[in-house]
Amino acid sequence: METFAKWWDGVELWLAQLPFPFQFALVMAVLLPAALGMARLIDRVVDDASARINPKADR
Length: 59
What we know:
Mean pLDDT: 92
Keywords: Membrane, Transmembrane, Transmembrane helix
Number of helices: 2
Strand content: under 5%
Number of strands: 0
Transmembrane segments: 20-42
């Protein structure tokens, strides 16, 4: 765990030292796919739950 913490500290330091446009581009490259994946997962879970609660409603 200590090795991972040291690695992560290095990544944070590297990211913090980059100019803002590069920071923004890297964060968006990670956050946009992650947010899209979470939105799809939440949508699927809600659709499954609503289908179980009201099985007669056809889409």
